[in-house]
């Protein structure tokens, strides 16, 4: 299943109207739209508000809650229960931290368990950033984390940054019936290759948000013409990278 990720009501509703059977949210899109850093826990309020609103759509909605916005499993569970009461179908909770390290596996597992106990019908997708942060970018390293989170109650696991088809297939095989979620990477993947690899869910992450942002700036500059503010525009439909968009909350510029 392809899971497109929205950043506000309009983007989610537009994706639903085009026929996507489920919609996720992007933490970067939510945070950047509010002028906040991603992965820092700063966008808890915005994430909760959007999740409540999107739950009214007639499709399952999965909300990216970063690391749960707390290291207290009880607080993470309370957030999950509130989203579940609103009608959210699932959450994605990650073990990556803003400082580039991983949360202790036992603590992250405790968050997963607390979420499932507080909201048994909430689909908990446990994300490990072994590959995304490069802390242990091996199939064995990802499997250790995924196995621990599945034992804690996770319904699915997510390994962004895992791009090699053979590694995806190997991890999916080791996980058996537990769905493996991977992040689509235009530089590495085709849809056909991913579906053949055994990935059960493919997330688009912040790609749509970044593409929309880049295209908006590009279009404005094109309309302004040669005498307009051309410096720093994206050319040829280029999608600004994650780091460039993430930096916007502390900057006034866009582009190099």
UniProtKB/TrEMBL annotation:
Organism for this UniProt entry: Streptomyces nanshensis
PANTHER family listed in its UniProt record: CARBOXYPHOSPHONOENOLPYRUVATE PHOSPHONOMUTASE-LIKE PROTEIN (AFU_ORTHOLOGUE AFUA_5G07230) (PTHR42905:SF16), PHOSPHOENOLPYRUVATE CARBOXYLASE (PTHR42905)
Regions annotated as coiled coil: none
Protein name according to UniProt: Phosphonomutase
Pfam families for the chain: PEP_mutase (PF13714)
Gene Ontology molecular function: any one: catalytic activity
Gene3D superfamilies given in the database record: Phosphoenolpyruvate-binding domains
